[in-house]
Amino acid sequence: SSHFGSSSSRASSSHLPSEAPQMPTIADLASLLEKLDAPQRADVERVLRIEELEGHGEVPEPFRAKVARWCGGEDALSQAWKRVECQHVISVHNLWTFETANFNVLRASRPVAGRGNGHRQTPDEIAKSCEGPGLCDFCELERLTCVEPFGRIHGRHCMSAGNAFKSSGLHGLIIWTRHAPHRLTPEEVSDGFQAADLWFERALAWDTTQGSGRARHPVMFWNCFRGAGASQIHP
Q1: Which of 38, 132, 191, 209 has its CA 20 to 30 A from that of 176?
Q2: pLDDT of residue 231
Q3: Strand 100-103 to strand 158-162: parallel, antiparallel, or no bridges (unpaired)?
Q4: What is the DSSP string of 128-140?
């Protein structure tokens, strides 16, 4: 019986499937383009401009443990938070239709605001439920948001930060002091747009002098509340 068992073991191991080759992902698109021969590459580049953009930023020490957990680590000692400090964004621009699509696989780790307690809440109740230190990262802006290579823009009622999970090489945030987005005053909104203008100017200037020089489309979103995809209620 021992001989039979040994033979069976050898037979089954000889039929084990070999490890399948790893499929390329959208993150490999720029390198796949490089591997094409000249005529094939020319065909692609006649229609598409494919680039790999880098997004840089600094994660403050108090923010590192949280970012590490978002990125699959256990705590700051895991060093997983360092993935956020240099990100790779694949940008595909259609030269004929002028449409652009950007892909960053790290954005799959982006936190998403919860759906609430299941009861219908007013905007004031939603905002109040997550306001203040320990509940809202943006209420502790300088401790719990990323710093861009060119620093922060300071307005009268707001301040800039780097998006922790970028959708472009330059992807910033303007964060107001006020927590409830629907309570922003006209003066505060105007101040935020002025700060955004300064952010675009400084971001492009930094890219020209110290970056890649290819930041054609710096990005800044404004999404309020969960239904718009906001990861924080705080604007």
Answers
A1: 209
A2: 78
A3: unpaired
A4: HTT-STTT-GGGG
Q: Looking at 157-223, which runs of residues are DSSP E strands?
A: 158-162, 172-176
Angle at 86 between CA 196 and CA 172, to 5 degrees: 10
**Cα gap 230→173, rounded to integer Å:** 12
**Tens digit of each residue's pLDDT (9 = 90 or more) over 26-37:** 889 999 999 999
Query: Between vectors from CA 158 to CA 127 and to CA 107, what angle results, nearest 5°?
Result: 70
Q: What is the radius of gyration, based on Cα positions, of the chain?
A: 23
Q: What is the chain's length?
A: 235
Quote the pTM value. 0.80
Long-range contact pairs involving 222-227 (C-beta distance under 8 Å, separation at least 24):
224/181, 224/182, 225/123, 225/126, 225/181, 226/112, 226/113, 226/114, 226/115, 226/116
Spatial CA neighbour of 23 closest among 32, 33, 14 = 32
**pLDDT tens-digit map of 93-132:** 999 999 999 999 998 888 776 555 567 888 899 889 888 9
Average pLDDT score, the chain:
86
> Rounded to an integer, what distance in angstroms lies between the CA atom of residue 180 and that of residue 158?
13
- Which whole number is the average pLDDT over 162-190? 94
